[in-house]
Structure formats: C-alpha cells, structure tokens
Design brief:
By secondary structure, this protein is an all-alpha fold. It contains 6 helices and no strands. The protein is elongated.
C-alpha cells in the first residue's frame, strides 16, 4: 500500500504542477491530496510539501484548521465567475445545462466560503 500511496502522491504533485499553468486545473486541492498520500508513504516528501516556500503555509492551514485564505477565496470567486462567463458565451448552452453548471459552481463556492479564513 505504501508504494500505491507514493505513486498517487507523486501523480497529484504532477497534476498540481500542471495546475500552475492551466487555469482550469486547480493546484492546491491536488497538493492537499498529495500531502495526504505522502503521510502514508513518505515522511520526507510530506515534509517537503509542508515546508514548501510557496504552498506550505496553505497546506498547513488546511491540515490544521481546514482554513482557506481570504485571498484564495476571492480568487476562487473570480476564477469561477470568469469560467462561467466563458462557458455561457462560448458554448451557448440551453437553460437546463446553464442552471446545472451554475448550481455546481455555486456549490463549490459555498464550500470554499464556509471554510474558516486563514
């Protein structure tokens, strides 16, 4: 099982790295998953993530208190809003699909904004 968690953790780090450059792919959730996998497989890699100069404080805040920074919350709102506008005007979806996507996005934002602020 340790090898499986190590492979998953490395895969999540890779997806998180891609998320830095691809706006539709989130970075932090993949790094949170990577840290959880490294907890079960590699204390050295877990420490590397938690001590990382850019992502470490975000990961520690999440792990310790389930907290998301106010800046990250507002960036999530801006990104989600932009994504919805692009979706709506680029694809001209029907009413049902528009409502489904809006509900999904609002559910995600509700989750983010109900977490404690770091």
């Amino acid at each position: 099982m340790r090898g499986l968690f190590l492979a998953l953790g490395l895969g999540f780090v890779g997806l998180g790295f891609l998320g830095i450059f691809l706006p539709v792919l989130p970075t932090t959730p993949f790094l949170i998953l990577a840290a959880a996998c490294f907890t079960r497989s590699s204390p050295r890699l877990e420490a590397w993530l938690l001590d990382h100069s850019h992502f470490g404080s975000t990961l520690r805040d999440w792990r310790e208190r389930g907290a998301i920074s106010a800046r990250a919350k507002w960036l999530a709102l801006a990104g989600t809003s932009l994504g919805f506008v692009l979706f709506y005007f680029d694809s001209e979806p029907g009413l049902l699909l528009t409502l489904a996507v809006a509900l999904l996005m609002l559910s995600g934002l509700a989750y983010v904004f109900t977490r404690p602020s770091a």
